[in-house]
Amino acid sequence: DVTGATRAITLVEAPTPRAEALAIALRLRRAAEDGVTAALITPDRGLTRQVTAALDRWGILPDDSAGRPLPLSAPGRFLRHVAALRHQRLTIEALLVLLKHPLTHSAGDRGAHLLHTRDLELDLRRKGPAFPDEAGLRRWAARRPVEGRARWVDWLAGVIAEPMAGAAPLAEHVAQHLALAERIANGPDGTGGGALWQKAAGAKAREVVDDLVAEAAHGGTMTAADHDALLGAILQGGVVRDAVTPHPRIMIWGTLEARVQGAELVILGGLNDGVWPAAPTPDPWLNRKMRHDVGLLLPERQIGLSAHDYQQAVNAPEVMITRALRDAEAETVPSRWLNRLMNLLGGLGAQNGPQALAGMRARGRGWLDLAARLEADYTPVPPAARPAPRPPVDARPTELPVTDIKRLIRDPYAIYAKRILRLRRLDPLRPAPDALLRGSVLHKIIERFVRERRPEPLPEPPAKARARLMAITAEVLAAEIPWPAARRLWHARLDRVADWFLALEATRPGTPVLIEEAGGVDLAGLPSGQRFRLTAKPDRIDLDPDGTLHVMDYKTGTPPTVAQQEHFDKQLLLEAAMAERGAFAALGPLPVSRITYIGLGSTPKEVSTEMTEGLADDAWVDLGKLIGRYGRHDQGYIARRAVFEERFPGDYDHLARFGEWEMSDGSVPETVGEGDGE
C-alpha cells in the first residue's frame, strides 16, 4: 500500500508561475511559523525571485545561497547604462533612465538634481527633440532659468557626448567607461564615484571591474558595442550577497548546494522539462562523437546529475513538488522524473497508487486555494457605471476650437476632462513618427508650397511645381523628422501623390487668401446669460473669381464622408459659417461656395461639397442647439457617446473606467464640483 509512503508528498500543479510561487511562499511561511527547517530547491532563478518577493510581505527573508546577480544590482545596471551610452544614439528614454538612477549624482545635492530632471522630462516630452543633444539642453536651460541649472546642464552636456565610433584597445574602452561612470555618479561637484562603489553590491562591482582592468591589456581592439557586450557577460558572473541576517530556517538552494545539505521540508520547484533537467546547451561546433573523442562531457552527464539531485531531494521527510502548467508562452511539459512518478502511481492499482496520487494532488490544491484567497480582493468593488459628469454651468467652457466640436459630439467626456479638469495626455517617453506628427509635417509642407508660389503670367509649369514641392518636402522632413526610415517613407508617400495633388492645384480657379490664420466669432442666440465663442485656424481658404470663398482642409488619412460631415465632422461646415460671419479679419464676411477635404494618404481622395443655400446656416443653428444644451446643468458629459469605432481608444478612457462598462450601457449623470468642496 503506497498511500502511507506518499502521505508526506504534496503535488502542486499550478495554472501559472505566479500561482506556483505563491503556493511555495505560503508553505514556507507555515514552516517558519511551525519552526520547521525548509528549503526550496530549484534551478529556476526566476521562480526563486518570485518566491522571495512573495515572502517579503510577511517580512521573511530566505537564506538564498545563490545571492543576487550582479547585473541586476544597482551598480550593475548603472555600469550597463553607461556602457550603452558610449555607442548608442541618445534617446529621451535612455537619458531619463540614467538621470533617475539612484547612483547618478549620488555625491552631491540629489534633491536639486531630481528637480532639474523632472523639469527636463516634462519639456522633452512636450517639445522634444526625440534625440537630446547639448544644444537642445542649453536652449532649455536658457528658457527655464533656475538657480544652479546652468552648472547642472554643463555637467550633463559633458557626459552625453557623441557615441564613440571605430575600434580601440580594450584597455582604452575600460578606462573611458569607468571615468564616465564616476563622473556621472559624482555629479558636478562630487568626487570618488559617489555611492557607486559602496555597500556589498558596489564592492562586488569594483572587484569585477578591477579584474577586467588587470586583464584589459590582453583584450585586443574592439568597438564600443563589443565592449558593452563583453562587460555584460563579465558582470553576469558576479553574485552579490548582502550583509543581512536571513531567516534561520528558510533556505533557497540550487541543486549543487542541496547535494550536501538537508532539511525537514524540501520543496522541489519548477518540475518542468527544460528546468529539471535543463535543456542541453546547443553546440554548433562539435557533435556528440567529436565531444567524446576529445574527452568532453556529453549532455547525458548533466541529465544524470539532475536525476541524482532529484532522487536525493525527494527522499526528504516531507516533500512538496511544484510545477506550472503554463508559462508565459505555452503549455509546459512535466519533468521526466515527475512524469515517471505519476505514471508509476497511476499503474499501481492493487497498491492504491491512483488514490495516493489523488491525495498528493488534493494536498496541492489546498495550497493553491489558499494562494487564490491571498490574491482575492475581499472588498468587492462594483464596476463603474458609464459616467456623465455634470459640473457647474459657470465651470463649463465658453470657448472651443472648431476641431473640438467633433469631440463634443462623439465623446463629450473628453471635453470635460480636457477643458474643465484641464487634464492633458502626457506625451510619450519614446517619441515615434506617428500619425499626429505625420499630419503636422504634411501641413507644414503644403503651407510652404502654397505660400511660396509666386504669381506668374501663366500657371506654374507642372515640372517646376513638382520639383519645388519635393524640395520643400525634403527640407521640412530633414528639419522635423530625426528618423531616417520615416523620412524616406514619408517622402516616398508624398512623391506618389504629388502628381495627383498638383493636377488638382492646376485646376483651382481661386487664389489662396488665408493660410493657417486664426479667427473666431461669438455665437448669438444662446439662452440668457450664456456666452460662447468658436475659434478656428483653417488650413486654407481660396477666393474664387466670382467673389466667393473655397474652404479646404488637408488630411493624411481618409477624409470624412458627406454623411459624417452632416452629423459628426462639422469642421469645414462650421468654418464656412464662421467665414460668412466675418470670423477672419483678413477676409471680412463673404459667402462660401464650396468646402473640400483633401486626403493625401496612401489612396488620395478629395471630398468636395457644394454649399447650397442654408447649409452653413443649418450647421450654425445646430451648433447653437448643442452649446445651449451643454449650458444646462442637467446635461452631463457622457463618455464615448458616439465614437466612430469602439476599438479606437481615447485619451481619457482610463479616467472614465471604460471596460468596466459596455457601450450598450446607459449613462449615470452625477453632479460634480458643487457642495462639500468637491
Give a short overview:
This protein has 678 residues and is α/β, with parallel strands linked by helices. It is 45% helix and 13% strand.
Which helices and strands occur, and which strands form pairs?
Layout (H helix, E strand, L loop, with lengths): L8 E6 L2 H18 L3 E4 L3 H11 L7 E2 L3 E2 L4 H12 L6 H8 L10 H18 L6 H10 L5 H11 L7 E3 H17 L12 H17 L5 E3 H13 L2 E2 L9 E4 L1 H4 L6 E4 L19 H6 L5 H15 L4 E7 L11 H12 L5 H23 L10 E5 L8 E3 L1 H8 L1 H9 L14 H17 L10 H19 L3 H24 L3 E4 L4 E4 L10 E4 L3 E4 L5 E7 L6 H6 L3 H10 L11 E8 L5 E6 L4 H16 L22 H4 L10 E5 L7
Parallel strand pairs: 1-10, 2-8, 2-9, 3-8, 9-10, 11-20, 12-15, 17-18
Antiparallel strand pairs: 4-7, 5-6, 13-16, 14-15, 16-17, 18-19
Percent range for helical residues? 40-55%
Give the strand line-up of the largest sheet: 1-10-9-2-8-3
Total count of strands? 20
Uncertain parts: none
- Helix count equals 24
Strand content: 5-15%
Distance between the termini: 70 Å
> Average pLDDT across residues?
90
**Rg over alpha carbons:** 34 Å
Largest sheet: 6 strands, parallel
Oligomer: single chain
> Any idea what the shape is?
globular
Find the structural class using helix and strand composition: alpha/beta
